Amino acid sequence: MTIVSSLPVLFSELRTETRQHQTNLNHSYNLQTIRMAGRGTVKASGNFNASQDAETLYKAMKGLGTDEASIMNVLTSRSNDQRQQIKAAYKTLHGKDLVSDLKGELGGKFETLIVALMAPPTLYDVTSLRHAIKGTGTDEKVLIEILSSRTPQQVKDIIAAYRKEYDSDLEKDITGDTSGHFSRLLVILLQASRQQGVQEGNVETDAQTLFTAGEKKYGTDEEQFITILGNRSAAHLRKVFDAYMKLAGFEMEESIRRETSGSLRELLLAVVKCARSVPVYFAETLNSSMKGAGTDDQTLIRVMVSRSEVDMLDIRANYRRLFAASLCSAIKADTSGDYQKALLLLCGGDDA
Asked: What domain of life does the native source organism fall in (predicted)?
């Protein structure tokens, strides 16, 4: 068999192996995408050919200069699963690693965004958490965002993938880098064992317990906050928040702002917001990343990449409702160049 005639066989075997790896690593993310079918802006391409896309990317990077437009057009219009197949085809056809070549050809924030798109979702969360813990200082913002917004199954997958990738225990690494009630709530979230459904008989009791632990008490009993907010289901918590509003006369978030501070306050607020609505939480996160002087590009990239196949349409709609401007217009005002163009492709449209 010649090398040319054997390529389809080699590619077929490698693609099968890659698909299986991707399925194992990202089972919960695929289920999440199915459950929210149609809510992402990035979808699988109907006329997908991994080897053709691999050739397009190869041509975009060979010789003098780089065709950034071709790179972003291909990678922002393919699902993550398809990107993994392109990566496998690229290695089969050219004997080179696609991500390494992209890093060699691109630069700056555009490179960071494109490389992020090439990571399987679970692995992207894992590496984000690792950098947040092991970098200079602790990036608590990343810990808060990922652990408060992911489903219990996704958290379990993250823990397993973290151990496989770094031969280390995520909980141990986090507790070694954090402290106090903030650390304890992170550990509760890492257990990924929230109660299922609504315990109707406990709604009023939980609301009263939170009121007594905060507004009614001199000082704050943080333990009650982290136990209830960290262990109840989102549906149950929404009912607790309604009961709390009737009891206290104001929203749960207002009490948290008054009764807690620092990282614990930010984590409790994120948990409450995600219990109410994950897309609203991310709309607010994106707004925070772009408002004021300077742009928090790491957060902007992380959210745009991680939510592009999940609920970006809902995030966009909530952004428009909350901030009287479109997400697209905010991105245009805060970014530039190929980086901006790629972000706008992930955004998928202007809601002006």
From this structure: Eukaryota
**% of the chain exceeding 90 in pLDDT:** 84
Q: Return the amino acid letter for 178.
A: T
Taking the C-alpha atoms of residue 136 and residue 333, their distance in angstroms, rounded to an integer, is 30
pLDDT tens-digit readout, 278-289:
999 999 999 999
In order of 29, 94, 125, 313, 352, the CA distances from 43 in angstroms are 14, 27, 20, 12, 23
Q: Which residue has the tokens 């009263």?
A: 208
Alpha-carbon gap, residue 272 to 276, rounded angstroms: 6
pLDDT in tens, 223-281: 999 999 999 999 999 999 999 999 999 999 999 999 999 999 999 999 999 999 999 99
Give me 180's structure tokens.
């106090």
In this predicted structure, what is the pLDDT of residue 218? 63
Could you give the residue ranges of the DSSP H alpha helices within 48-193?
50-61, 68-75, 80-94, 98-105, 108-118, 121-134, 140-149, 152-166, 170-175, 180-191
Report CA torsion sign: 274, 117, 157, 188.
negative
| Vertex 66 angle, CA 62 and 69, to 5° | 125
User: Rounded to an integer, what distance in angstroms lies between the CA atom of residue 105 and that of residue 164?
Assistant: 30
Reduced to 3 states (helix: H, G, I; strand: E, B; else coil), residue 216 is coil
For 287-341, write each residue's pLDDT tens digit. Answer: 999 998 889 999 999 999 999 999 999 999 999 999 999 999 999 999 999 999 9
Query: Which pTM value belongs to this model?
Result: 0.88
Q: How far apart (Å, rounded) are the C-alpha atoms in residues 137 and 140? A: 9
Cβ proximity of 69 and 99 under 8 Å: no
Residue 189 makes CB contacts below 8 A (sequence gap 6+) with 147, 148, 155, 230, 271
Structure tokens at 150: 């992911």
